[in-house]
Amino acid sequence: MLVLTFHFLSYAREWNVSTNKSRSQAIEDPHYFTYFMSCLESNVQSQADPKAHTGVLNPRTRAQIEALLQDGHVEELRRRLLSRMTFGTAGLRAAMGAGFALINDLTIIQSTQGMYKFLARSFPDFGSRGVVVGFDTRAQEASGCNSERLARLTAAVMLCKDIPVYLFSTYVPTPFVVYWHNGAQISSPNDKEILKFIEESLEPWSESWDESLSDSSPLRRDPLREICHAYMEDLNSVCFHRELNTKSPLKFVHSSFHGVGHNYVQQAFRAFGFSPPIPVPEQKDPDPNFPTVSCPNPEEGESVLELSLRLAERENAKIVLATDPDADRLAVAECVWKVFTGNELAALLGWWMLFNWKETHPCQADMGRVYMLATTVSSKILKAFAQIEGFHFEETLPGFKWIGKKIHELAKTGNEVIFAFEESIGFLCGSMVPDKDGVSAAVVVAEMASYLYNKNQTLHQQLQNIFEVYGYHISTTSYVICKEPLTVKRIFTRIRNFEDENTYPKSSGGHRIMHVRDVTTGYDSSQPDNRCVLPVTKSSQMITFTLQNGIVATLRTSGTEPKIKFYTEFCAPPGKSDISSLEEELKKVTNALVEEFLEPDKNNLIRRST
Description:
By secondary structure, the chain is of the alpha/beta class. The protein has 21 helices and 24 strands.
C-alpha cells in the first residue's frame, strides 16, 4: 500500500503522455489499472535497500487490490482508490480494507502524520503535552488490519517525532474519532485543517512503520490504570442513590455485543453499589466477526437482542442493557420486552437527571445556568421539559462532536449541561466526558430503574407519566438508499424550488408547513432575518419542516452511507393523549413527505426493508 498513494495519480500523468489522454481520462480507463500495478511492481523492486520496505507493503491489502484488478472490478477499484476518508458526523469513518478510501495501515499512518503537523503548529508545547491513543477489538482478517495494530502505528508516528504517547495496554471503549484538548471530538474548522495537513503528508516517514517503538520508546506510557480509576471515581457525579442501589433486588442482563464493554460495565455497576449485571455469555468476549448477531448494532432492537431477552427470562431479570461494540451507545429493554427507542430513553434519562438535579439544588434561581442538549434530528422532548421547568435547551447539528463543542462553550460561561443525547441511542449523563458514553448511561439507567421499581413503577410507566406532563412525543426514523449523488442533488434542488424558483413546499400530507430550515443554504423562515442559527453545512443536505399540526420532519443525507434519512416526530401539547390517532397522523404525514418530496419510484430509490 505504501507506493499506491503517492504514485496512483502521478502515474496517470505519465500514462496520458503515452496515450494522449488527460489524467481524468486515464483513471477512467480500465487498462490504466494494469499499467499502474506494473509501475508499482517496478517501483518496489527498484529500491536499493529492500530492508527499508520490511512491513511497508501490507501483503494482504496489496492482494486485495490485485484480486480486484484480476477480476476486472474497475468500479470497486475506483471507489477504493479515487477518494480518501474524510471527517463525517462520527470522525474518520470507513470500513477496513485496501484503498485510500478505507481504513488500513497506510491511511492511518498518513492521517496521523497530518495530525502531527497540525498539532505541532497548533500547540507550542505539543512536545510535552503528548497524545492519548486507545483501541478496541475491531479487525478484518482479509486485510490484516486490526485496531491494536493501527493504534501501534499511530503511536509510532508520534514517537518517532519525540511526542509522548499514552497508549493503552489493552482494549478500551474507543470510537474511531479524533478528540481535541477539551476532550470533545474535533469539529469544523479543525477537521478541515487536519485534512489539508493529511493531504500534505501522504509519504510515510521511514519510522512510521516501526511498531516496536511502542515497546521500546521511553516516551510511551500506559495510562490504563490511572484513567480507569479516575473514570470510576468521576461516576460519583451521576450516582444519586448509592444506599438504595446496594439493597436493590432488581436483576439486570448486559450484552457487550462482542465488543469492549463487558469489563467496564461490570466495574461501573460496582462503583454505584450494585451487584454486577448478568453477562450474555455468548456475547461477553470481544470477537470482530460478531458471530451471534446479524448486525452488531443494538439500535436494531428486538431482532438483535434475542440472546439477551432469553437470558433475562431464564434469570428473571427485568432490565436488559446492551452496549454497542465500542461501548459508546446503549439500548435498553424492559420485561415483558418493551425495547425503548433512543428518543424514549432520552425522555427517561432527561427526566431522571433533572429530577436529581432539583433534589440537590432547591434554589430555583440555579436553574438559569442549567442546560440540556440534543442533535436537531432527535426528539424535541427536552425542549418541552425546558419550557415547563425553566432551564435552557439548545439543539446542535447531527453528531456528538457538535454537542461536545457546545458543552465546552457553555462551561466557559459558567453553565452546566446535565444531559445530552442523539436519537441513535447516544447519551451523555452529566458532563464528565463530553461525548456519548454507553458505560455511564448503562449504570445510570440501572439506578433509575432501581429507584422506580422501589416505588412499584416500571420504566415504561414512568415514560407515560412524562408524556402526560410534558406532552406525547412520538417519533419515527427511516431512510431510502440512493447511490447516485446527482439524483440526491436533483431531489433537494427540487425541494428548494418546489412550486417556483427559491420556493419551498407549503404543505405536506394536507397540513400547512409553518417553517422551513435549510442548514445547507443557511435559510430559516422561523428567524426574523431568515438566517439559520445552526452552522451552515454546505457539504451535506438537510432540510427541516415544522407543520401546523405539531409534526417536525427532517430530510438529510447520511455522512457515511448512500442514504437519505428522514426523521418525523409528533410533538403534541400536554393533555392530548389519544396515542393511536397521533401515531396514525404521524404515519400519514411521514408517508406523504417521502412520496411527495423524495419521489422514491421516480428516482429509483431503494426503500428500507422492514
